[in-house]
């Protein structure tokens, strides 16, 4: 693995003919990260979370690799677009109220065969039926299990507020309701344990909190594994030919893959490895997606100013949602200004070696959200840009 200084020199050489701001994906790191996800999945297929990639060319690249199968999408409009583009297995991982999209789905046999929609409430079935616009195609349905860890009689909840379905009888009941309703078929079950897969357990300088997180995650994995197995048995009693049981995320691939009840793993952020995935004891990846901002001012000793850079990630607001100045190492934000909309001052001794026009390389806090800021990704192999590919934004697709 190259040193950060060697990577910086390589990225600077590769993009010397391009003006910043710009975004790159290091294909050597991307492919190595893909191999690591497959290794950790231990023979179970990895379904790629498109929201963490948001680039068709890179979705095609990873799905061409052994060990990957299918896409986990984030909106119905995106799902239909991907299916029309030739992707044959698209699981929409969030409920939708896109009536026009459901009308298209119900009226097109190819789309209906390629796209599976998420349901966790009978009211969502009502919405789909009302949107059919005469379409009679059977809608493929996936049910979602609530994975949250509940402690002290339910007074404490740890985990994302997603599905209202928690117990085996609730999932089986909805499966029966779908089976009894013409025009729908349950084909899958999913459960995303974000409090395990998306929360780092090794926080620099915070050993007590890190230990607390590891204890919580150990308890959460044990509780969920038992409950998920029960849920799968209950749903399979209603739907014997259930096609898939999806679970996991980048941070929990190997633990989730070890559950017999799970048939496939979801992951996406592990391909780009943004900064929020630096703090795990279970795996380490190589930063693959970066963006560069040009130095446009030198306000004084130990200070440079770059153009733009204020690209916060979604989630609860905090410093961990900001991009991090990555290369050259040793730069930090001015606490009075942070990451700015139009300009960002950076402090630290490396600033004195930067000239006007030089670039500072950043890592985004999350994965695919970077692609909402750039319309093109420059693909780097070695010290050359070997291709330039559009992001979703570059194809005029801004789904959320």
What does this structure look like?
This protein is α/β, with parallel strands linked by helices. Helices cover 31% and strands 24% of the residues. It contains 12 helices and 19 strands. Strands 1, 12, 13, 14, 15, 16, 17, 18 and 19 form a 9-stranded mixed beta sheet that branches. A hairpin with a 2-residue loop joins strand 12 (289-300) and strand 13. Helix 8 packs across helix 10 (207-238). The relative contact order is 0.17.
Calculate the terminal CA-CA distance, rounded to whole Å: 36 Å
Percent helix range = 25-40%
**Tell me about the biggest sheet?**
9 strands, mixed
Q: How does the helix and strand content classify structurally?
A: alpha/beta
Number of helices: 12
In terms of DSSP E residues, the strand content is: 15-25%
Name the poorly predicted regions. Answer: none
Quaternary structure annotation: single chain
Rounded radius of gyration (Å): 22 Å
Mean pLDDT: 93
The 3D shape can be described as globular
Number of DSSP-assigned strands: 19
Q: Which key terms come to mind for this protein?
A:
400 residues; alpha/beta; 9-stranded mixed β-sheet; 8-stranded parallel β-barrel; 24% strand
Task: Summarize the model shown.
Helix content is 31%, strand content 24%. The protein is α/β, with parallel strands linked by helices.
List strands and helices in order, with pairings.
Elements lengths: L3 H11 L7 E5 H15 L4 E4 L6 H8 L4 E6 L2 H9 L5 E3 L6 H8 L2 H6 E5 L2 H9 L8 E6 L4 E3 L4 E3 L9 H12 L4 E8 L2 H4 L9 H32 L5 E4 L5 H5 L6 E4 L1 H4 L16 E12 L2 E5 L16 E4 L4 E2 L9 E5 L11 E5 L12 E6 L2 E7 L10
């Amino acid at each position: 693995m190259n040193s950060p200084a060697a990577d910086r020199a390589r990225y600077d050489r590769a993009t010397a003919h391009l003006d910043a701001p710009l975004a790159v994906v290091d294909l050597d790191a991307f492919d190595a990260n893909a191999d690591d996800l497959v290794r950790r999945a231990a023979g179970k297929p990895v379904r790629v979370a498109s929201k963490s990639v948001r680039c068709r060319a890179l979705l095609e690249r990873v799905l061409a690799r052994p060990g990957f199968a299918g896409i986990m999408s984030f909106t119905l409009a995106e799902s239909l677009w991907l299916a029309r583009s030739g992707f044959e297995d698209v699981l929409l991982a969030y409920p939708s109220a896109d009536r026009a999209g459901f009308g298209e789905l119900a009226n097109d046999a190819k789309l209906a065969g390629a796209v599976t929609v998420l349901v966790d409430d009978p009211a969502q079935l009502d919405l789909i039926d009302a949107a059919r616009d005469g379409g009679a195609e059977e809608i493929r349905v996936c049910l979602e299990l609530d994975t949250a860890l509940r402690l002290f009689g339910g007074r404490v909840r740890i985990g994302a507020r997603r599905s209202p379905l928690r117990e085996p009888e609730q999932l089986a009941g909805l499966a029966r309701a779908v089976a009894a309703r013409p025009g729908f078929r349950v084909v899958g079950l999913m459960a995303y344990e974000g409090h395990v897969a998306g929360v780092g357990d090794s926080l620099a300088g915070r050993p007590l909190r890190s230990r607390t997180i590891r204890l919580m995650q150990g308890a959460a994995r044990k509780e969920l594994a038992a409950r998920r197995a029960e849920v799968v048995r209950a749903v399979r009693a209603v739907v014997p030919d259930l096609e898939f049981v999806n679970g996991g995320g980048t941070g929990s691939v190997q633990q989730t893959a070890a559950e017999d009840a799970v048939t496939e793993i979801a992951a996406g952020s592990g391909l780009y490895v943004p900064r929020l995935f630096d703090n795990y004891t279970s795996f380490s990846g190589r930063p693959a997606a970066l963006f560069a901002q040009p130095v446009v001012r030198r306000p004084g000793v130990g200070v440079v100013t770059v153009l733009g850079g204020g690209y916060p990630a979604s989630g609860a607001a905090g410093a961990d949602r900001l991009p991090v100045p990555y290369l050259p190492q040793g730069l930090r934000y001015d606490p009075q200004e942070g990451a700015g909309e139009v300009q960002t001052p950076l402090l630290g001794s490396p600033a004195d070696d930067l000239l006007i026009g030089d670039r500072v390389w950043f890592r985004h806090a999350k994965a695919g959200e970077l692609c909402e800021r750039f319309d093109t990704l420059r693909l780097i192999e070695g010290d050359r840009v070997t291709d330039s590919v559009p992001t979703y934004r570059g194809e005029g697709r801004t789904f959320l």
